[in-house]
């Protein structure tokens, strides 16, 4: 018999990312992951996937191999709080293939709800991990988003880091919804490129709305909204040190870099999130989840 405190680790030689889960938990989840089924925790009505990095990658790879379709939302406190004011965004998050726990607060909520195997699935790290596995597996990638030239620079950075990586197209959208001609142009480029994964580098909630609208219009299996990953991996934004990420203080690092743009997001949303989670945890406020995938 395997005791509950025995662990199996998974590490990528290219990225060094490690996820830990009990052997019993891992075996129990394996079959369900193959069918795209996985546990969730309820974070103020948002169904956040109660998974680890390794499990998120397994789910994504299975969907690609099946040539199925789905979008992945990378969601932390900001996304959860936006969904409190936007019922459409709440529905989009809850209909996703995966809504990853992008920040430590969502992981802590999951742990309180009994999902002890859950760990952070940070968008920029998820991008690197899937790209690391892609040359051998043959996964093809398309980059959508960023300011002028960012997607092209990101393509160069990723190809250099992961030799043999196939990035089959890039597209820099305007700062407005696409018009009819631009939609047709994007669809044609994606159809010609035949990517397995289309990475979306817009801000929340723009990227979630884009993925929900375009999933069935574009010839790709997965769409993944990774927000600031485009800027982080090209050096436009510096990433927080590991200790700040683990302590749930990455928001403070971002705030120091962009105080004018982010002060409201963090100094108002974060305390409100803590208050609402406290009410939910003690049972004074209940949050139902809308329909999921």
Taken together, the total number of domains comes to 1
Uncertain parts:
1-26
Structural class computed from helices and strand pairing: alpha/beta
Principal-axes shape call: globular
β-strand amount = 15-25%
Q: Got a strand count?
A: 10
Account of the 3D structure:
With 293 residues, the chain is α/β, with parallel strands linked by helices. It has one domain. Helix content is 49%, strand content 17%. It has 14 helices and ten strands. The strands form three sheets. A six-stranded parallel sheet has the order 6-5-10-9-7-8, sandwiched between helices. Strand 1 (7-11) and strand 2 form a beta hairpin. Helix 12 (250-257) runs antiparallel to helix 13. The longest helix is centred in the middle third of the chain and has 15 residues, at 123-137. It starts with 6 loop residues before the first strand and ends in an 11-residue tail after the last helix.
Task: List the main descriptive attributes of the protein structure presented here.
17% strand, 49% helix, alpha/beta, 293 residues, 6-stranded parallel beta sheet, two-stranded antiparallel sheet
């Amino acid at each position: 018999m395997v005791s509950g405190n025995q662990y199996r680790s998974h590490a990528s030689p290219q990225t060094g990312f490690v996820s830990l889960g009990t052997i019993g938990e891992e075996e129990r989840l394996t079959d369900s992951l193959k069918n795209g089924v996985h546990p969730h925790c309820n974070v103020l009505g948002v169904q956040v996937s109660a998974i680890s990095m390794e499990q998120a990658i397994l789910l994504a790879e299975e969907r690609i191999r099946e040539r199925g379709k789905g979008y992945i939302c990378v969601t932390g406190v900001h996304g959860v709080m936006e969904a409190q004011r936007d019922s459409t965004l709440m529905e989009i998050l809850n209909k996703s293939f995966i809504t990853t726990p992008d920040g430590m607060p969502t992981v802590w909520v999951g742990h309180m709800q009994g999902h002890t195997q859950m760990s952070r699935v940070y968008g920029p790290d998820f991008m690197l991990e899937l790209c690391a596995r892609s040359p051998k597996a043959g996964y093809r990638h398309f980059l959508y988003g960023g300011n002028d030239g960012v997607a092209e620079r990101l393509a160069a950075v990723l190809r250099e880091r992961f030799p043999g990586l196939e990035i089959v197209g890039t597209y820099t959208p305007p700062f407005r919804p696409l018009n009819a001609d631009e939609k047709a142009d994007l669809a044609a480029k994606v159809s010609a490129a035949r990517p397995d994964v289309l990475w979306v580098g817009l801000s929340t909630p723009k990227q979630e709305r884009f993925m929900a609208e375009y999933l069935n219009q574009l010839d790709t299996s997965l769409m993944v909204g990774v927000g600031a990953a485009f800027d982080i991996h090209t050096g436009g934004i510096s990433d927080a040190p590991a200790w700040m990420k683990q302590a749930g203080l990455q928001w403070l690092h971002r705030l120091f870099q962009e105080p004018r743009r982010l002060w409201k997001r963090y100094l108002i949303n974060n305390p409100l999130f803590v208050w609402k989670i406290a009410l939910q945890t003690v049972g004074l406020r209940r949050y139902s989840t809308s329909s999921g995938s």
